[in-house]
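To assess whether ligand presence alters the predicted conformation, the chain was also submitted together with nicotinamide-adenine-dinucleotide. Input:
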Amino acid sequence: MNNVGIIGAGQMGAGIAQSVAQAGMQVMLADVDLAIAEKSKAGIEKALDRLVGKGKIDPSDAVSALGRITPVADYAPMTDAELIIEAATEKEPIKQAIFAEAGKILGPDAILASNTSSIPITRMANHSPDPARFIGLHFFNPVPIMGLIEVIPGLATAPETTERMRAFAGLLNKQVVEVQDEPGFVVNRILLPMINEAVFVLGQGTASIEDIDKGCRIGLNHPMGPLELADFVGLDTCLDIVMVLYNTTGDSKYRPAPLLVKYVEAGWLGRKTGRGFYDYTGDAPVPTR
Ligand SMILES: NC(=O)c1ccc[n+]([C@@H]2O[C@H](COP(=O)([O-])OP(=O)(O)OC[C@H]3O[C@@H](n4cnc5c(N)ncnc54)[C@H](O)[C@@H]3O)[C@@H](O)[C@H]2O)c1
């Protein structure tokens, strides 16, 4: 694998681009416009500089990894990509429109993968150019640090596509769990109900933001509390995933916590907007309630 296209240059697209470039592959990075893809590359440069500063990678490796990332204005340059990874906003109509556009340039052997957190792969494959070459490739945030990829074949995905994605994960030095196409796959199916419940607990006034997180950090030995983690994932993404679990199963146990909905309506989306359950505008995060 030498050439990878990435569509969606937000926190996940940037992390995937960095990891793929560090593994020696060429990356073409697209978003809704060139300026966003360029800004994303500037963010990757900072992330690589931090790794150099900590002595984790050589300065020359950082320069060559960055040199392998090309922001692009549209998908035309991705004609030679052997793999295109969609990492755009977790909204099905947005993803469907991307698959239709990507279908116009997807090479005859190339694979189209989605980094969706929760949308059914089989259903999205039906809107893709070739369902046999469509697959879920679920990375974890922050991608350069997290060592897992969930590989999710849809009903029509060819076994060869799954094998090629296992090999790709190996190139990135990541472990794979292969998961059937069920809502939320494995990790989010377990994680999101916990985050959602933490927001119910907060909304009912049972404990403060700090104490909910402290309780889970110390009592469960989790590295982060659920509300800190929600801010890190993005509250809009959390709500989108909970809604997919709720709508696809019809099970009321997945109904979203009203306070989570309110925070998203307020535009308080977590770290990426400077405010979620914590305020990130100062030197250290401060609880907002
Ligand atoms: N945040 C996480 O922890 C996490 C983890 C695993 C998977 N995911 C999934 O990754 C995907 C992206 O999430 P994120 O956290 O990076 O979100 P984000 O909001 O940081 O980035 C989304 C990006 O998609 C771009 N975008 C929107 N419409 C587009 C279009 N039509 N064409 C190209 N780009 C478009 C946006 O401009 C934005 O830059 C989602 O499907 C999400 O569920 C997120």
